[in-house]
Amino acid sequence: MAKRVSVDKWLFTVTLLLVFIGLVMVFSASAVMAKERFGSPYGFLLRQMAWAGAGIAAMLVIMNIDYRKYRRASVVFTLLGFTSLLLIAVFLFRDSHNTHRWIKFGGFSLQPSELAKPAIIFYLAYFLESRWQQIADWKNVLLPAAAPVILFALLIVKEPDLGTAIACLAIAAAVLFVAGMNMKYLWYALAASLLPLYFLVVRVPWRWARMQAFLDPFKDPQGKGFHIIQSMIAVSTGGLTGLGLMEGKQKLFYLPEPHTDFIFAVTAEEMGLWGSLLVVTLFGIFLYRGIRTALRTEDMFGKFLATGFTAMVVVQALFNISVVLAMMPAKGIPLPFISYGGSSLFITLASVGVLLNITQQMD
C-alpha cells in the first residue's frame, strides 16, 4: 500500500469537534462560578481558549514532525527523567485541598501526572520496539518495561491521585498487550495489586467513604452520596434533547467541579441523550481510528505509540463518563478535550499530534 500523504481527516476532525464542544460546555458549566471568582463569566472560558489555542498549535506542528525522530534514547530518557523530577518536585510546592498535584508559578500551573502518561508511552514504545519478540522473558523484558510505570504510579498515588495512577497502569497494559504480553502476567499483576488496593482504599477513611457512597449513595443522600445522586439527577433531567445550553440547574449549587470532573453530567442535562451520545460517538470514532492506525502501522515503534496515545484518551474518557453515570467511584479524572484544565488539554492535543503524524506514515 502506498504511503499516505495526509493525516487521518476523521481523527483530526473528531479532535477539533471535541475541543469545540469542550469550550462550549466549559463556558456553560463555569459562567456563574467565574462571575463570582473573577467578576466576569468568561474567566474560565478565556483561560481554556488560550490553552486550546496553544494545544492546537502544538498539534499542528507536531503532526508534521516525523514520529521516528523520537526513537532516540536522548529523547525518551530525557522525557522520562524530566517527568520523574517533576513528580518528585511537586511535593515541594504548597498543597491544594490536601493534595500535591500541581506545580504553580504565579498564574501558571502544571500537573506533572499529565506528563507522566506520554512519558510512559514513549518509553514503552522505545523499549519494546526491539524486544517485543522476547516479551515472554519477564526478567529481562517485562520487568524493565514495567519498572518506570510502577515508579510513576507510586509517586502519583503519593500525591494522592489513585485514579490517575490506575489510568497510567491501564495505558501501559494496553501497550504491553499489543506487544504480545501473555495475559497471565496481567492476572498476576491484578492479584498482586489486591493487598495494596486494600490499604489504599479500605484503610484510607475518605476513599472508603467514597466507595461506600458509590455502593449505596442513597444511604446518606445529604452526605457521602450527595454528589453521586446529583450527578444522576443531572443526567436523568436532560431527557432526550436536554434543557438547553446555560439552562442546567445542577451545576449551580449541587454538582462538585461541574466544569472539570462532572462536565459530562452538565452536558447530559443541557444537551440531553442525543448530545451525550454525540460525545460518546466522537470518542468511539477516535478509538476506531486510533486502533486502525495501530493495526496498519508496520513499524513497531509507531504501532506502540499509536496504541498508547489512543488508550490515553479513551481510558480517561471511559473513567470520567463511568463516574458521572455512577458506574465507578469518583476518581477525579478529566474528560479529555472537554473538561477544564490547561495542562491536560495541551498535553493531550500535543499527543494527538504524534498520533496524527503516524497516520501519515502508515504503509
Could you characterize the architecture of this molecule?
The structure is a single chain. The chain has 363 residues and is mainly alpha-helical. It has one domain (9-360). It is built from 13 helices and 2 strands. Strands 1-2 form a two-stranded antiparallel ribbon. Helix 1 (9-38) packs antiparallel against helix 11 and helix 9 (226-237) packs across helix 11.
Query: In which order are the strands of the major sheet placed?
Result: 1-2
Helical run tally: 13
State the end-to-end distance.
6 Å
CA-based gyration radius: 20 Å
Which structural category fits the helices and strands? mainly alpha
Shape: globular
Q: How many discrete domains?
A: 1
Portion in strands: under 5%
| Total beta strands | 2
What string, H for helix and E for strand, traces the elements in order? HHHEEHHHHHHHHHH
Arithmetic mean of pLDDT: 92
Q: Biggest sheet: strands, sense, closure?
A: 2 strands, antiparallel
User: Which residues sit in consecutive blocks of at least 5 with pLDDT less than 50?
Assistant: none
Helix content: 55-70%
What's this entry about, in short?
By secondary structure, this protein is an all-alpha fold. Helix content is 68%, strand content 2%.
Characteristics:
363 residues, mainly alpha, two-stranded antiparallel sheet, 13 helices, 68% helix, 2% strand
Question: Could you give the topology of this structure?
Answer:
Blueprint: H1 9-38, H2 43-62, H3 73-89, E1 103-105, E2 108-110, H4 112-129, H5 138-158, H6 162-178, H7 183-202, H8 205-215, H9 226-237, H10 250-253, H11 263-296, H12 300-324, H13 342-360
Helix pairs in contact: 1-2, 1-11, 2-13, 3-4, 3-5, 4-5, 4-6, 4-12, 5-6, 6-12, 9-11, 11-12, 12-13
